[in-house]
Amino acid sequence: MRLGFSTASLAAFISSLALTACGNSDSSSSGSTQQSASPSMAIKAVGETRAALKAALRTYKNGDAAAAQEQVAEAYVSHFEEAEEPLDGKNHELKESLEHAISDDLRASMKAGRSPAVVQAQVDKIVADLGKAEAALQ
């Protein structure tokens, strides 16, 4: 009989943990809803992405490719990702193009040691596309 009570108690405890976990899941999903950027926040994030990429370009031109790659990764994660969802709703192709250009192409060029002129051209193209993103988000 004691075993039955322990099993029941254990089952109740596990159930309460499961409910608590569900509650945490709900709160984190509402957190992600709050994290979804408004158009004005997305426009700000696009501007911050632009500034961060220009800083990464300066770092690259100064000869520190590894630091520049990190700056590009940080620009993507800390800034561009905030604009992705709203931009995706306005212009999916542009969002995909920017995502690929920043997170893959630019970092790969830096890693490969491409000339500063090549990297400059890539950043110029991305900056132009970020301008299109801002316009789309208006």
Describe the structure.
α2 runs antiparallel to α3 (65-90) and α2 (39-61) runs antiparallel to α5. The protein has 2 domains: 1-35; 37-137, Up-down Bundle (Four Helix Bundle (Hemerythrin (Met), subunit A)). The protein is elongated, with a radius of gyration of 22 Å. It has 5 helices and no strands. It has 138 residues and is mainly alpha-helical. The termini are far apart. Mean pLDDT is 82; it is low at 1-34. Helix content is 91%, strand content 0%.
The percent of residues in helical segments reads over 70%
> What is the second-level CATH architecture of the largest domain?
Up-down Bundle
Number of DSSP E strands: 0
| Biggest sheet architecture | none
**Count of helix runs:** 5
